[in-house]
């Protein structure tokens, strides 16, 4: 072997070279019938340039620990959704209770107003002493309450 042929073998080929006998990094000149031992295959896998992935597009087989983690994650997600749903239901119940309390208070105020008007319409001429003073004070409070 001459020194010039050794130099050629050590040099890396650029894509502009037109010599097909020179080995390239291109996959077009690979002999598929050639068998490699395991050490050479490992060396080839390590020599791949970064940015390329071996086996892209293939589905990876999930290990049992991955499946357990996935199941745990799905369980936690389901629980969080249940908690969120319960919180939403609780919020709706609280809104309904507030509306019911508001309606109840309005009904109570309406009943109280009826009683107050009824009290104002009754005569108090027949009362004497403290009873008369209390009736007059109550009438005054009712008038102030309703702006009468």
Overview of this protein structure:
- The chain has 148 residues and is mainly alpha-helical.
- The protein has a domain at 66-146.
- 63% of the residues lie in helices and 0% in strands.
- It contains 4 helices and no strands.
- The protein has helices at residues 3-10, 38-46, 64-121, 129-146.
- It is rod-shaped and about 125 Å long.
- The protein starts with a helix and ends with a helix.
- 0% of the residues are buried.
* Number of helical regions: 4
Assembly state of the chains shown: single chain
Instruction: Count all strands and give the number.
Output: 0
* Run of helices and strands: HHHH
Major β-sheet annotation: none
Low-confidence stretches are: none
Q: Could you tell me the radius of gyration in angstroms?
A: 47 Å
Structural class: mainly alpha
Overall form: rod-shaped
Task: Give the % helix.
Answer: 55-70%
Mean pLDDT: 78
Distance between the termini: 124 Å
């Amino acid at each position: 072997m001459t020194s010039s042929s050794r130099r050629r073998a050590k040099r890396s080929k650029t894509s502009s070279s037109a010599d097909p006998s020179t080995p390239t990094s291109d996959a077009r000149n690979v002999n598929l019938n050639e068998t490699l031992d395991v050490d050479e295959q490992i060396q080839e896998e390590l020599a791949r340039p970064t940015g390329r992935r071996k086996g892209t597009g293939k589905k990876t087989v999930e290990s049992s620990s991955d499946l357990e983690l996935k199941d745990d994650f799905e369980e936690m997600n389901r629980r969080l959704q249940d908690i969120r749903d319960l919180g939403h239901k609780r919020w709706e119940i609280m809104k309904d209770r507030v509306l019911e309390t508001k309606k109840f208070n309005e009904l109570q105020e309406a009943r109280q107003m009826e009683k107050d008007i009824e009290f104002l319409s009754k005569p108090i001429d027949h009362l004497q002493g403290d009873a008369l003073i209390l009736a007059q004070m109550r009438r005054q409070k009712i008038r102030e309450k309703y702006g009468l």
